[in-house]
Amino acid sequence: MNNPFNEDFTDKTVKVCAKNMNFYYGKTKVLFDINMQVYAKQVTGLIGPSGCGKSTFLRSINRMNDIIEGAKIEGQILIDGKDIYKSATDVVQLRKKVGMVFQKSNPFPKSIFDNVAYGPRIHGSSNKRTLSEIVEKSLIRAGLWEEVKDRLDTSAIDLSGGQQQRLCIARALAVDPEILLMDEPASALDPRSTARIEDLIGELRKDYTILIVTHNMQQAARVSDFTAFFYEGNLVEYGRTKQIFTNPAEKQTEDYITGRFG
Amino acid sequence: MNKQKIFLEKIIIFAMVIITYLIIAAVGYIVFDIVLKGMPHISLGFLTQFPRKSGAEGGILPAIVGTFCLVTVTILIALPLGMAAAVYLTEYSRQGRFMNTIRLAIITLAGVPSIVFGLFGLGLFVIFLGFGTSILAGSLTLACMILPTIIVASEEALKAVPKSLREGSLALGATKWQTIYKNVLPYSISGMITGSILGVGRAAGETAPILLTAAAFFLPKMPKSIFDQVMALPYHLYVLATQHPDITAVRPKQYATALVLLLLVLGINSGAVILRLHYRKKCRW
Q: Is A210 exposed, middle or buried (0-12, 13-18, 19+ CB in 10 A)?
């Protein structure tokens, strides 16, 4: 990989670090020797054509790929310097620390309150006041509180698509994660809802390390500080978003972001 | 040529329509016949009295109670077992030779003739485990018989819960069991139960499995525990229709008993349908 970084990043904390990572579904190799450092409290966009491995990479950071039969990883993924694929890793604690928002909003068919309180409850909170506080705080952070505060006990399924996705973000925030993984969180939403999600990401980046997979070039350019371009299982280029979009080092990157393929 | 084709097609469609109506007619005739000949003989006394003179007089109360007991105990045994098996099969097991063997076993179990279940129950529950001819032995036998239905129905209900709900829960740090218990079972339990009730309806009407394991033709008193023998509607009907010394004389009683059994099974099944409709409205994602 050509390293386009001209600046020194020693002042930035590395939050997630992939080292010589390979990934297989059964016998098919889908990620090839990925080396990448994700910086704390920055938004890192993962771009690339469908099937390039960016979602697989994202899902290996909270070990969601574990549930897929035949999935196998080689190399290391370090979070705060610790290898999360060591057998001693507590996957429950890992996923508490690394929240995830999915492409298709997946609110549980429960009330709005119960959706947000789901995480805290499974991690042992049962005090009603504590739960109420967490729910309120999380919904405020996700920018949904004003819209739903009077109907917390109604079904989450009745919310609009954009609201559902913000609810899913609130639900992820409720377990107090440090990293947020977002897998095309706005791809199923209308432009207005998309804009709201993007604004929200802009606010959340102050407190969370965010990785976002997106198919939308403009979105990647708008919301992310760093951008990684994946192609056919390889990390082709990784650098500051500004640099990737204005002066990419690789021909493939340039072709992709200018829309010549993908 | 073309005309011929159209004519042929019309004949085929007509034939299919006729066959469909024949099925309805057959069911209609059976129900009509039983209702017509059984209804006049159903009275409060018939439903609330013990039989007298080998069933020629009196009612069928102990048979109704007996069938009710058998059905209840069967549900209590088969439902938890079947649901647990379905949860294991859909949520935990990995595909492979072992799984294929289990599936084959379930399909085979569904195809075993009911009299074989009866003999199996006699050998295992009545004699070997020493439960005697009793509600417990009969219900265990019936439970074995309807387990495949319950497992398959429960699996379908579990599979209907979208994968995204499981992923959403796991991604929040829930363990697999927490996910199943809190975010899969609550949405599938109604489907599991309604699907299973259809199996229970079948168990209520079966004669062969209880013939050797639970049923008696006449008992002077009600069962007091699950280790007691009971009378049962299908068995009572079977004896009245084939074993009774004066079969033609007790014909009205046969029809009346058949009608009660029919209504019971119909009631159980429509209960399942109503439950399903009710929950379908409530459960969306």
A: buried
Q: Which residues contact A8 (CB under 8 A, 6 or more apart)?
A: none
Backbone angles phi, psi at B237, to 5 degrees: -65, -45
- Tokens found for residue B95: 């595909």
Decide: pTM greater than 0.80.
yes
Could you give the CA distance from residue A9 to residue A21 in angstroms, rounded to a whole number?
22
Angle, helix B135-159 to helix B97-111, in steps of 10 degrees: 130
| Interface ipTM > 0.90 | no
Cα→Cα distances B281→A19, A134, B166, Å = 50, 31, 22
Flag if B167 and A168 touch (Cβ within 8 Å). no
Q: Does A22 touch chain B (CB under 8 A)?
A: no
Q: Collapsing DSSP states into helix, strand and coil, what is residue A211? A: strand
Q: Looking at chain B, how many residues does it have?
A: 285
Pairing of strands A14-25, A71-79: antiparallel
Interval B10-66: pLDDT, tens: 999 999 999 999 999 999 999 999 999 999 988 888 888 888 887 778 889 999 999
- Judge whether A59 is closer than 8 Å to chain B, CB to CB: no
